UniProtKB/TrEMBL annotation:
<dbReference type="GO" id="GO:0006541">
    <property type="term" value="P:glutamine metabolic process"/>
</dbReference>
<comment type="pathway">
    <text>Pyrimidine metabolism; UMP biosynthesis via de novo pathway; (S)-dihydroorotate from bicarbonate: step 1/3.</text>
</comment>
<keyword id="KW-0067">ATP-binding</keyword>
<dbReference type="InterPro" id="IPR017926">
    <property type="entry name" value="GATASE"/>
</dbReference>
<keyword id="KW-0028">Amino-acid biosynthesis</keyword>
<dbReference type="InterPro" id="IPR036480">
    <property type="entry name" value="CarbP_synth_ssu_N_sf"/>
</dbReference>
<feature type="binding site">
    <location>
        <position position="238"/>
    </location>
    <ligand>
        <name>L-glutamine</name>
    </ligand>
</feature>
<feature type="binding site">
    <location>
        <position position="236"/>
    </location>
    <ligand>
        <name>L-glutamine</name>
    </ligand>
</feature>
<keyword id="KW-0665">Pyrimidine biosynthesis</keyword>
<feature type="binding site">
    <location>
        <position position="308"/>
    </location>
    <ligand>
        <name>L-glutamine</name>
    </ligand>
</feature>
<feature type="binding site">
    <location>
        <position position="265"/>
    </location>
    <ligand>
        <name>L-glutamine</name>
    </ligand>
</feature>
<feature type="active site">
    <location>
        <position position="356"/>
    </location>
</feature>
<dbReference type="GO" id="GO:0044205">
    <property type="term" value="P:'de novo' UMP biosynthetic process"/>
</dbReference>
<feature type="domain" description="Carbamoyl-phosphate synthase small subunit N-terminal">
    <location>
        <begin position="10"/>
        <end position="140"/>
    </location>
</feature>
<keyword id="KW-0315">Glutamine amidotransferase</keyword>
<dbReference type="InterPro" id="IPR006274">
    <property type="entry name" value="CarbamoylP_synth_ssu"/>
</dbReference>
<feature type="region of interest" description="CPSase">
    <location>
        <begin position="1"/>
        <end position="185"/>
    </location>
</feature>
Length: 391
């Protein structure tokens, strides 16, 4: 690609709902954006972060100081566009220097209309959020940067809170589509797209599944019509407490004995389907360096995470499902703060994790969970076949 050098934009300001203000220069599109401000601690993989639909509605701060040096390319996108509501970086790369680059990050942000800000102390903002929690925020650049401070703060405070917000319809596919299995076929998995990432679908296909991707509005009858060998709920943005229809769909499938695997939002929805509550974390887990203990293997895995909500359940002991699905236990938990990072049902074929085992930007410690899902489906199929032979 040509040697495109970054040119700092016009003045910009980041305003938090508690009144804190941070001034810098526009990065990407110029204008105004509102959302929940959060921080992501990954040292690499900014393009995968930006194109992850789970970040819809959020203004993302990159704690890594130098962003944009490898540019952007089509292959590394996790979806067709950038989903973040806004982007905050400290030092944008002056040039793009990578043989795989097809363009610059600031041009990509401008193309997708993402308002960002650069040249500010992202470490100070991160420490501020760690103390005060994730909060509403706004980025104002160009003419909007000249608005009176009181007016900017009022706009931020009148923004939409992430609590009670259902964003699945904003990020899900509009029409069903199919990805055939690669390699030896073992069956069909119905994927409810709540903001699914490209790499997730690739890994399911590589495990021998014909992947039937469904819109988030799919009904239980639509899922049943596919006669799937398994059901998968993807990652996605929003508050799980605002997704009652998805919970009921999952409950019907669990009652029918369909094997289930959920990731991130899909973990929270399994918790709700079993009858356990969810809650909002103070500032969430976001990054590709989060330590998690897998209680099944006893191994510590470094994981990729992006969630602001979690299942409210003690990490030790066996718990009876209030919804009649038998026993369940916490299979994984965070070594930073003991937050639930996975669930395993003991009486039905279902499990889930709160983090991202597909993690396209790395690490890949938990990629084996796709194998665990495949093995679960095969075991369930063999059990059903054996029972049928006896009858």
């Amino acid at each position: 690609m040509s040697d495109t050098r970054f040119v700092p934009g016009p003045p910009a300001v980041l305003v938090l709902e508690d009144g804190a203000r941070f001034t810098g220069r526009a990065y990407g599109a110029v204008g105004r954006t509102l959302g929940e401000v959060v921080f992501a601690t990954g040292m690499t993989g900014y393009q995968e972060t930006l194109t992850d639909p789970s970040y819809a509605g959020q203004i993302v701060i990159q704690t890594a100081p130098h962003i944009g040096n490898t540019g952007v390319n089509t292959e590394d996108r996790e979806s067709a566009r950038i989903w973040v509501a806004g982007y905050v970086v400290r030092d944008p790369s002056r040039v793009v220097s990578n043989f795989r680059a097809e363009g610059s990050l600031d041009d990509e942000l401008a193309r997708d209309g993402v308002v960002g800000i650069s040249g500010i102390d992202t470490r100070a903002i991160t420490r501020h959020i760690r103390s005060g929690g994730a909060m509403k925020a706004g980025i104002f650049s160009g003419e909007d940067a000249a608005l009176p401070a009181a007016e900017q703060l009022d706009l931020v405070r009148r923004g939409v809170d992430m609590r009670g917000r259902n964003l699945s319809g904003d990020v899900s596919t509009g029409e069903p589509y199919r990805i055939p299995a690669s390699g030896e076929r073992i069956g069909t998995v119905a994927v409810l797209d709540l903001g699914v990432k490209k790499s997730t679908l690739t890994y399911l296909s590589e495990r021998g599944f014909d992947v039937e991707v469904l819109p988030q509005s799919a009904s239980a009858d639509q899922v049943k019509a596919l006669n799937p060998d398994a059901l998968f709920f993807s990652n996605g943005p929003g508050d799980p407490a605002a997704s009652d229809a998805h919970v009921e769909l999952l409950r019907e499938s669990l009652r029918a004995g369909v094997p289930y695997f959920g990731i991130c939002f899909g973990n929270q929805l399994l918790g709700r389907a079993l009858g356990f509550p969810t809650y909002k974390l103070p500032f969430g887990h976001r990054g590709i360096n989060q330590p998690v203990l897998d209680k099944t293997t006893g191994r510590v895995e470094i994981t990729s995470q992006n969630h602001g909500f979690a299942v409210d359940l003690p990490v030790e002991g066996v718990h009876d499902s209030p919804e009649g699905f038998g026993r369940a236990e916490v299979s994984h938990y965070s070594l930073n703060d003991n937050v639930v990072e996975g669930l395993r049902c003991l009486d039905i074929p279902a499990f889930s994790v709160q983090y991202h085992p597909e993690s396209a930007a790395g690490p890949h410690d938990a990629n084996h969970l796709f194998d665990r899902f495949r093995d679960l489906v095969i075991a369930r199929r063999d059990e059903t076949t054996s029972t049928g032979d006896q009858n």
